[in-house]
Amino acid sequence: MMFKLRFPASKVPYWAGRYLNGASYGALRNRLRPVVRARGCLTRSEFLEICKWKSPRSQPRCAQNDEFTVLTVTKAALDTGDEPLKIDLLRTLKGVEWPTASTLLHVCDRRPYPILDYRALWSLGYAEPPRYTMEFWLAYLQFTRDLARRLSIDIGALDRALWQYSKERQPGGGSTQPSPAPRRSASRQP
After folding, report:
1. 40: alpha, beta or left, given left = phi > 0 and alpha = psi -120 to 50?
2. 107, 41 in Cβ contact below 8 A?
3. Is the Cβ–Cβ distance between 21 and 119 less than 8 Å?
4. Which residues contact 27 (CB under 8 A, 6 or more apart)?
């Protein structure tokens, strides 16, 4: 898997600064992150708020998760250091696929996580979003963490730059969305 930034890395701060949804994103992240990190899990209302921010269309399915399930699954996901298990656990929640699971990690986890988004992927050289798989997620995670570290920026700033560059430069406004990969059980395979 190859990722190639479509614009000079030195321009990441410029594109991040042009991000138009910064107020709602920043408010959500700044308000929820410390509370969730201190508690170690999401409540159902916090979960639904993050899911709505990422994908309003997923709300009916996300709302099918009860409080106990959200608390239990998000605690297990935020507690484990096993990257595949972490995202697989979140994907067991109704209405949560790769992009939403990555957003939950981005907002709540102590480690830096990018938001898996077709706009960000376009800015990294993907004309069409690939099918999301664990192999792809782990490669994307490593690439974005390495790039953010190399540029000495927060992964959130990198995310905003990738999204905004696509929004302004992708032909047709970037309306192509990937088809979801089949769900994988949260249980580990030997």
Report:
1. left
2. no
3. no
4. none
Token pair, residue 94, equals: 């109704």
What's the CA angle centered on 17, arms 36 and 119, to 5 degrees? 75
Residue listed under structure tokens 């701060």: 13
**Weakest-pLDDT range from 20-24, 28-32, 107-111, 116-120:** 20-24
What local confidence, expressed as pLDDT, does residue 26 receive? 75
Q: Which two tokens stand for residue 22?
A: 């910064």
CA–CA dist 179, 93 (Å, integer): 18
Report pLDDT digits (tens) over 150-184: 999 999 999 999 999 999 999 876 544 443 444 44
Return d(Cα 72, Cα 93) in angstroms, integer: 11
Q: 123 near 166, Cβ under 8 Å?
A: yes
**Token digits for 157?**
């700033």
Cα 156–chain centre separation: 10
